[in-house]
Amino acid sequence: MDGVKAALVLFFVALLQLAVLTEYSAFRTASIVLVALLSLALLRGSVFGAVAGFGIGLLLDVATLGTLGVSSLLLTAGGFWIGRYGETTARDRFHAPFLSVAVVTGLFAFGQLALQFLLGEPAPAGLVAHSLPLGLLLNLLLTLPVYALIRRMFPPLELGDRVREVRLLG
Amino acid sequence: MPRNRTVRLAVLGSSVQRTAASGYPSSRSSALKRRIIVGLLVLLSLVLITVSFRSSALDSAQGTAAGILRPFEVAADRVARPFRDAAGWTQGLISAKSENKKLRRQIEDLSQKVIQDESAVEENVQLKAQLHYNGPPSVAAFGRVGAAILVHPQSPIDQSVVIAAGSGDGLAAGDVVVDPSTRGLVGTVERVFAGVARVTLLTDAQSAVTATDLTYPPAVGVITRGGGGSDVLVLDLVSRSAFVGVGDTVITAGSLGKEALPSMFPRGIAVGTVSSSSNTDVNAFKNIQVKPLVDFSSLQSVIVLVPKA
Fold this sequence. Notes:
Largest sheet of chain B: 6 strands, antiparallel, barrel
Distance between the termini of chain B: 88 Å
Structural class of chain A: mainly alpha
CATH class of the domain at 139-307 in chain B: Mainly Beta
Number of helices of chain A: 7
Number of strands of chain A: 1
Largest interface: A-B, 68 and 68 residues
Number of helices of chain B: 3
Oligomer: heterodimer
Mean pLDDT of chain B: 83
Distance between the termini of chain A: 38 Å
Helix content of chain A: over 70%
CATH class of chain A: Mainly Alpha
Shape of chain A: globular
CATH topology of chain A: Arp2/3 complex 21 kDa subunit ARPC3
Number of domains of chain A: 1
Low-confidence stretches of chain A: none
Low-confidence stretches of chain B: 5-15, 19-24
Strand content of chain A: under 5%
Helix content of chain B: 25-40%
Radius of gyration of chain B: 28 Å
Largest sheet of chain A: none
Strand content of chain B: 15-25%
Order of helices and strands of chain A: HHHHHHHE
CATH topology of the domain at 139-307 in chain B: Thrombin, subunit H
């Protein structure tokens, strides 16, 4: 059930980014899809984050008629990594979503640049570095409402839901 | 009685975090499963990149999927339009008074120029007919296909848009795209699918178009993207001796299109105005910066120039 709900949420967020937000040039440096994905990964774990990242990346690549798999690869890695962070040390920490978004925004931008370079396409590093501060700021501003909304829709799992079994020794 | 018993942790009321550090078989299998899933997804992504980049095998599937997404994108755009219009209306109201004055002055200047231009065009047509001149095609030699922009550039390094017209509307890769309001050059069609197409903007690092100064036609060069994060273009490969002044209009020089460059490029599409022009000792060509006529950040629709059969 969570999977279907997450798919619908991410589809809606992707449409919002593709057709509405990126019409304004400032939002071309930010990514509400990335923020929503990382929020989901923090709340639902690494496998959920990786699968959601792959799916939403594929959707973005299809919609922009770009090279398939580029966004999928980056968002799978981002979703998985932040999911692991959520599973291990980040639970119930206020700064976790902000830290995750800040780190992944930078890595995503330069990861995209590196892939462009490897594919032999123009990779203007200066342009990315120039636009990164604004993108980072906007993503951090988006984090508070987006994470709050997603946390409301996907409440953190109780410890009992997360752990399927324990073995008692002795 | 077995020593290992399985119970729900919630019963214990513990808040201990369970991590992958445990060495129990169940944790190990869970970690293994997680790694297999992520590994498969990464592998699938790499396969997709390879196939998509090296061949057109996935093009039809991508085109179909993009076609399925199209109604959703149009719907999202329509929902957002009233808000966008309201914001635009408010912004326009603030600047209307000063803009009104400026536009009135421009109308006066342009009315004079239109009269001169019309007589020049007439004379040009007559002279070409007398000389049996064969040159690059003019814009009149092309059909026009209007299309809304479905997807705007998604990142600073992405200088392309997706438009709502495709091969079904007669579009082909290499077709020239102009702005309907300013008639300025927007870019060229890069990839075409049944109902959608991807347009590479003039501001993309891979875009290049032969252009000339309208006031001094011998100054022919190549328009490419300028450095930095702005939309400024550069007119490169123009001889140092050429007379190119600030404020001159730069237009496409046109190409007939054959063999290695099969697409025809009409002459006379406005690209922008010269914002700076200088010579340096270290450069064999003039340093010319061009301010594009088109505001690439606020494009809503485009016209694709399709060669008439």
